[in-house]
Design a protein that fits this description.
The protein has 226 residues and is mostly beta strands. It starts with 10 loop residues before the first strand and ends with a strand. The chain is globular, with a radius of gyration of 20 Å. It has one helix at residues 174-183; strands spanning 11-15, 37-43, 50-56, 59-64, 72-77, 84-92, 105-118, 126-131, 152-155, 168-172, 187-194, 203-207, 220-225. It is 4% helix and 39% strand. 35% of the residues are buried. It contains one helix and 13 strands. A hairpin with a 2-residue loop joins strand 3 (50-56) and strand 4 (59-64).
Length: 226
């Protein structure tokens, strides 16, 4: 159940241009120095991760914060109750593993581990939207795309399906990370939901473990920048 992108601690320098020996004028005979490229891995914040269930029009149940009894979040439509869930993940961009506000984003990937799918043979298209809920406390209306509008969106490549159970789904969120930088957001926050269109009664369960192996199971944002 290895991640598709290697997880390291802190920041890892990916590329660093080396200056050549200067001539009499101090120039670099090898051409201009390449910018330093940095790779960082940011685990989601279990205190602010959660999901919102729409139980009826305008009625919501908010679950936020992982605990001994809550170790997963949900996205999609419950085939038994017919209610829809949307997951919210929070990745802090400040701190030692964060991304400097002036950094130029080269790439960004979000990974989440699928624990289960209901029904067992179900499959569903998943949409990942950049949102901003500050302070990072969820309220029911964050479910609503009109009240809590999307700042940008990407679609997971291929439907999430039973073959993904026990594996990480990797999503290219580079344009969303670029947008977050341009807006000066202090957290990279996403709403993970069934893609818009005809309702598909399939529910996916996303691992958000707080156990000792959290670094190998929790949602992860991997960013390369210079």
């Amino acid at each position: 159940m290895a991640r598709s992108l290697a997880l390291t601690v802190g920041l890892a320098t990916a590329f660093l241009g080396l200056s050549g020996c200067g001539g009499g004028d101090g120039g670099n005979p090898n051409g201009p120095q390449q910018p330093q490229q940095v790779l960082t891995h940011i685990l989601s914040d279990p205190q602010f991760d959660g999901d919102i269930e729409q139980t009826a029009p305008g009625a919501y149940t908010v679950t936020q914060g992982m605990s001994a009894n809550v170790q997963t979040t949900f996205a999609g439509i419950d085939p038994n109750a017919g209610t829809e869930f949307r997951t919210f993940l929070d990745f802090p961009l400040t701190g030692p593993n964060g991304v400097p506000s002036r950094a130029v984003i080269d790439s960004a990937f979000l990974e989440f581990l699928v624990d289960n799918i209901e029904p067992p043979n179900g499959q569903v298209p998943i949409r990942v939207e950049l949102v901003s809920f500050q302070p990072p406390n969820l309220i029911g209306t964050d479910f609503d795309r009109n009240i809590q509008p999307s700042l940008g969106a990407v679609i997971v490549s291929g439907d999430v399906n039973p073959q993904d159970i026990g594996h990480f789904v990797s999503v290219d969120v580079t344009p969303l990370m670029v947008q977050a930088q341009q807006l000066g957001l202090v957290d990279f926050q996403v709403r993970v939901m069934e893609d818009l269109g005809p309702a598909i009664e399939t529910l996916i369960e996303i691992d958000d473990s707080t156990a000792s192996d959290r670094s190998q199971r929790a949602p992860l944002l991997t960013v390369t920048y210079h």
